[in-house]
Each structure stands twice: as structure tokens, then as C-alpha cells.
Amino acid sequence: MKAILKLSMFFAVLLLLTASAARADGVNYFISGNGTTIDLGLPQTPTPSGFVLGSFFNLYNVSGTYNGQQTTFTATFISPGDQVYGGQWGLNLYSSLMGGANNVLHLCSGNDQGYSNGEANPFLTWNGDVSFSSWLGTTYDCQVKNVPEPSSLLLLGMGGAALLGLRRKRTA
Question: Where are the domains of the chain?
Fold first, then answer.
């Protein structure tokens, strides 16, 4: 019995030491500036509703809040290949709750890459604090936080439980 316990503890510790960094299952965007707050949650690898290779992709029916009110957005992620933005990474957000020209907030992040893997199968890469500027010259701050996938948390919990079990066996 002790040999099985020791062997299982060895594998648990080995698994914890060799585990790669936790992957993100989703991404939360909190954008604020000019009296506006927007909060959205997206999957790390969204399925585009439409796209143009080398230019942009759209996501429809994205749940979020605009100034604290629940709404759905259309989000367009733009690559430097779309020359309308002057070769910059960008994000357009549309909601019926938003005022202004065509109810669209146009944001540019300059050279800070918004996604990888192309428009057909994007992987969202903005992370941490991102500074956006609008076409009107207003600066918006964006805090992007990765949400860990449940299996990474489960793996971490199982490893911790195994170590706790080892400690209890040693003190008994």
C-alpha cells in the first residue's frame, strides 16, 4: 500500500512540475474612457461570424454591458492589412445602446497585436493593459484578463490534494 501511495505521489509531483502554463478558455475586456464603460467576455478562440482574410473578422451577438446596462455587441477585430485603419490593429464595437456616429466605437491599438492565426481561425492575443485611441482622438483604457479553462484548475486542485494526502500520511 505504501509503495502505491509513494508511486502515485511521485507521479502527482511530476505532473505538477511538468505541467505547462494554464491556457485561457476565455478573455474579458473592460474598456473605459470618455465617460463610457464597456465590459465583454469572449472565448479565446472565437468562431467568426464573417471575415475577410488579411483584413478583419466579425463576431455577432457578443454579450456584455454598456455603462452598466446589459446589451449585445457586434465586435469587429481589424488587422494591419485593413488599410482603412492606417495599418494598425483595431476593434470596432457596435450596440444599439451606444450613441454617436452610427452607434459604433472605433478603437485603434497601434502595433499591439489583437489576434493571431488569421481571420478564419483567430486566437485573441491582447492581454493586460491595452491603450486604445478613437478616431475622435479620445484615449480608452482596456484591461484584458484571461479566464483559465476549468481543466487547468482541476489539474492544479488534484495535484494540491495529492500533496496534502502525502503530508497527512507522513504525520500520521
Answer: 24-149
Separation of CA 6 from chain center:
39
DSSP readout, 46-75?
A: ---SEEETTTEEEEEEEEEEETTEEEEEEE
With a cut of 60, say whether residue 16 has pLDDT above it: no
Distance between CA atoms of residues 57 and 125, nearest Å: 14
Closest CA to 75 of 124, 113, 137, 34: 124
91 neighbors 58 (Cβ within 8 angstroms): no
pLDDT of residue 133: 82
Q: Determine contact, residues 76/105, Cβ cutoff 8 Å.
A: no
Grid cell 469572449 in the structure block, residue: 42
pLDDT at residue number 61:
93
